Amino acid sequence: MGFRMGIVGLPNVGKSTLFNALTRTAAAQAANFPFCTIEPNVGEVAVPDRRLDTLAGIAGSKQIIPTRITFVDIAGLVKGASKGEGLGNQFLANIREVDAIAHVLRCFADDDVTHVEGRVDALADAEVIETELMIADMESIERRLANLQRKLKGGDKEAAEQQDLLKRALVALEDGRPARTVEVSEDERKSWDMLQLLTAKPVLYVCNVDEGEAAKGNAMSDKVAEMAAAQGAGHVVISAKIEEEISQLDNEESEMFLTEMGLTEAGLDRLIRAGYDLLGLQTYFTVGPKEARAWTIRKGTLAPQAAGVIHGDFEKGFIRAETVAYDDYVAGNGESGAREAGKLRVEGKTYEVKDGDVLHFLFNT
Length: 365
Hints:
By secondary structure, this protein is α/β, with parallel strands linked by helices. The chain has helices at residues 15-23, 50-59, 88-95, 122-153, 157-174, 186-194, 219-231, 240-246, 251-260, 267-279, 303-310, 312-316, 326-331, 335-340; strands at residues 4-8, 41-46, 63-65, 68-73, 100-106, 203-208, 234-238, 281-287, 291-298, 318-324, 345-347, 358-363.
């Protein structure tokens, strides 16, 4: 299981430049004018995880298969998008299809790059997009509530649950709060997710700063960090220009370049980690002489469901999972050493898979 992250932002904030860097392609045209991205460009990239390389080296794996993340570069939004201004209708439709939103905010000053609002104010930019999404959600909720009336009169329990969730979301929106602030129980989660409210999606604020500020950010990115913390959202500081340069270098050159810039890792790594944290995701591994492979699951996933990510038959016929923690696998120099050290465990159907677990599933065919 991977996940789809939509990259959004006002025109000319650097989101297409960031997309190009992340996907190491030139699929999204980065130009100094609004709406240079007309169709949502989609790019898949491998999730960097040094643990996978270490495991492959120990096992002598012929192939290394990382898990992947999909980035969707969505057309620039402007004020009035909820009413169809600019490319608003298309923007709103595309954003419904992603798991999370990476909201790129311009935290740099550059007279050569115009701003659609004629000023540089990251918090105001964030408010423009949030407001448009909230307006679109309110209109959608009002339509849905009206359409539910006939089912409600017939005593439809599912319709009653939908009405309750929609009304709770509407109260929050009318109070100026996004739908993601609504408290939803585990029993309600599936129905809530099916509503596909735009402001219910987790948000990661991406502060695009100048090259010289990539390591520590600046006063504007600090304000964004405060806003994100208040909202329970994520945030990360990145220089899209640096990421674009790094994407053109090989591994050795990129590491040297990062060191020169005072950075310990590429922005892609930080962005993916922040996205994983935002969605509550983690990684487990399967390792052997043929391949070492990473798999993405949600935190709290039980062993049978984790096996189902590989193949449905693994979940249906699940018997047990032979489990070694990553550190124990490395310390034992492989599965045999971990077994001899008493670190290989046999786990059943109620085992909650941990991040970094090396698993071997046994199942009935």
